[in-house]
Backbone:
């Protein structure tokens, strides 16, 4: 049974969005088949907009329009795919055109009557540049360390973590455009790599997040102090999902 609760979707969303552009879409005929879906209102679950974010691989700020309830009403959704009752595949297999994300698209279209279109809009973005004094990044080594005995990341991977109020980024052997994509999630803006750095780097940083809706001041400061990089605010073209129509699903 596939269960679309907050923990599964949000962890996968943060990881997969760090690597995949909005343009990575798969045609409808490639979507997986699944048995009827059970949908119920719940105190803990996913909003329609969070499901759109995961299914179409976009961040919150890339979802435009829709009624207020699409961002506030929470839904507990269960479904069994044609893969049977096996647990969800590893995170690496959930990025498009992964079957789990495509299943979310199908649920949205069939049960929420979702209709969308895509636009490119001029929005605030950040450019990631080298700070005065130069970068403080470690060139990747084949035998990467495990900082503080925490999580043994493989080369070419990264994660955003949240523990006891603090947040952080750990990554191994990633190029700078990957780091820019990872930083898009916590900054709430598209981040574009303008560092001119072409190697593979290990990244370890942490910060105390600011209040929700506030500028990412502590993160911006941590990037400069810990990585020797800087975020410069500007505007640029960003592809967005526009909600043309969405309905509350029938509970069953």
Residues:
């Amino acid at each position: 049974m596939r269960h679309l609760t907050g923990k599964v979707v949000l962890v996968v969303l943060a990881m997969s969005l760090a690597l995949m552009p909005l343009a990575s879409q798969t045609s409808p005929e490639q979507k997986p088949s699944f048995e009827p879906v059970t949908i119920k209102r719940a105190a803990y679950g996913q909003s329609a907009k969070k499901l759109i974010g995961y299914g179409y691989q976009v961040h919150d700020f890339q979802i435009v329009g829709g009624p207020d309830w699409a961002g506030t009403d929470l839904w507990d959704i269960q479904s069994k795919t044609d893969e049977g009752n096996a647990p969800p595949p590893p995170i690496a297999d959930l990025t498009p055109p992964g079957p789990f994300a495509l299943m979310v698209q199908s649920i949205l279209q069939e049960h929420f009557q979702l209709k969308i279109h895509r636009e490119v809009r001029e929005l605030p973005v950040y450019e990631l540049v080298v700070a005065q004094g130069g970068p403080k990044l470690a060139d990747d080594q084949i035998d990467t360390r495990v900082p503080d005995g925490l999580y043994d990341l493989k080369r070419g991977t990264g994660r955003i973590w949240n523990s006891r109020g603090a947040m952080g980024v750990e990554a191994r052997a990633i190029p700078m455009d990957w780091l820019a994509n990872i930083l898009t999630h916590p900054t709430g803006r598209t981040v574009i790599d303008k560092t001119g750095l072409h190697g593979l780097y290990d990244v370890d940083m942490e910060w105390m997040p600011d209040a929700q809706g506030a500028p990412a001041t502590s993160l911006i400061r941590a990037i400069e102090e810990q990585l020797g990089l800087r975020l410069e605010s500007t505007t640029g073209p960003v592809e967005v999902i526009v909600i043309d129509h969405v309905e509350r699903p029938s509970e069953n």
